[in-house]
């Protein structure tokens, strides 16, 4: 299906966000949380593999590609914001698997996606294989008629291999392979800007500034361009009590509002005032 003008406009908006100051992109786990985050004034959304899997009663990584694509489509239909899809490892070890996942995400309405270099069964992919996967995925990301923003993830630091040198080498290779955005989750050194990545405006997800919220608050974390780890908030989803549902919404609102007061507040415009109830 050919992309419509609305998807093209979202893609342009999302690409423009990456050309400017650091921004926060939160993780909705369903259509309701997506609408809530849009009502708070966030400018884009990124899916969360773990948060979505939890809504299905499964562990992270256990959702199928078909289910993830349906999820992307549901979020795209629920909000007017650009959507970037967390495609994990592309749901397969081969470069072609990553390419298919990217293409399907674009067809479902996403304007960006991420692919990681980690396999739940085999661990971190070898360097050359990981670069080949990124290169093939980038080719798929160039095929839509709109600017699809592709993020390449180096998973070392959250997968038991905190090798900074290897992480930098991977990010540099992923950039050469065509990635638009580079992401190394789990870098812990506050204020550290690794040599070799410094100055690359498209490696905006590389380093961690002062915290906006306590990391113990259900895993929520804010970093420069790094996704908010709101996925843990979805673990108690499914309770039918209206009062408990309202409490869950409150748990979303508290950390989501924090960036307007702390952390990156000086760099980010304050979310516009709007009735939260209007999101539902």
Please tell me about this protein's structure:
The protein has one domain: Phosphoenolpyruvate-binding domains (TIM Barrel, Alpha-Beta Barrel). α5 (95-107) runs parallel beside α6 (127-141). Mean pLDDT is 78; it is low at 198-245 and 265-280. Helix content is 36%, strand content 8%. The two termini are 29 Å apart. With 280 residues, the chain is α/β, with parallel strands linked by helices. A five-stranded parallel sheet has the order 1-2-3-6-7, with helices on both faces. A two-stranded antiparallel sheet has the order 4-5.
Element layout with pairings:
Elements: H1 5-17, H2 31-39, E1 45-46, H3 49-55, H4 65-78, E2 83-86, H5 95-107, E3 112-116, E4 118-119, E5 123-124, H6 127-141, E6 149-153, H7 164-177, E7 181-183, H8 242-257
Parallel strand pairs: 1-2, 2-3, 3-6, 6-7
Antiparallel strand pairs: 4-5
Strand order of the largest sheet: 1-2-3-6-7
Spans of at least 5 consecutive residues whose pLDDT stays below 50 are 198-245, 265-280
Tally of helical runs: 8
The third-level CATH topology is: TIM Barrel
Largest sheet: 5 strands, parallel
- Gyration radius, to the nearest Å? 18 Å
The SSE order reads HHEHHEHEEEHEHEH
* CATH 4th-level superfamily: Phosphoenolpyruvate-binding domains
The global form is globular
Number of domains: 1
- What's the CATH class, please? Alpha Beta
Query: Alpha-carbon distance between the termini?
Result: 29 Å
Number of strands: 7
CATH architecture: Alpha-Beta Barrel
Decide which structural class fits the backbone.
alpha/beta
Proportion of strand residues: 5-15%
Share of residues in helices: 25-40%
Q: What value does the average pLDDT take?
A: 78
């Amino acid at each position: 299906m050919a992309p419509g003008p609305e998807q093209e406009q979202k893609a342009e908006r999302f690409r423009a966000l990456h050309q400017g100051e650091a921004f926060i992109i939160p993780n909705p786990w369903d259509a309701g949380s997506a609408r809530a985050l849009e009502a708070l004034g966030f400018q884009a959304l990124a899916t969360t593999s773990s948060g979505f899997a939890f809504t299905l009663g499964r562990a992270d990584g256990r959702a199928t590609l078909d289910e993830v694509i349906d999820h992307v489509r549901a979020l795209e239909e629920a909000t007017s914001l650009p959507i970037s899809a967390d495609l994990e490892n592309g749901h397969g070890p081969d470069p072609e698997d990553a390419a298919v996942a990217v293409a399907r995400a674009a067809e479902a309405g996403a304007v960006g996606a991420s692919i990681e270099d980690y396999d739940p069964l085999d661990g971190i992919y070898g360097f050359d294989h990981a670069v080949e996967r990124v290169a093939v995925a980038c080719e798929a990301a160039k095929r839509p008629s709109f600017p699809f923003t592709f993020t390449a993830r180096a998973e070392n630091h959250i997968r038991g291999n905190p090798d900074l040198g290897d992480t930098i080498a991977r990010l540099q290779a992923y950039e050469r392979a065509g990635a638009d955005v580079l992401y190394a989750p789990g870098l812990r050194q506050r204020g550290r800007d690794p040599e070799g990545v410094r100055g690359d405006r498209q490696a905006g997800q590389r380093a961690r500034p002062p915290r906006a919220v306590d990391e113990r608050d259900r895993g929520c974390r804010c970093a420069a361009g790094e996704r908010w780890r709101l996925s843990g908030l979805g673990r108690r989803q499914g309770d039918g009590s209206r009062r408990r549902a309202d409490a869950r919404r409150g748990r979303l609102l508290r950390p989501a509002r924090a960036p307007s007061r702390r952390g990156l507040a000086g760099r980010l415009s304050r979310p516009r005032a709007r009735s939260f109830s209007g999101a539902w």
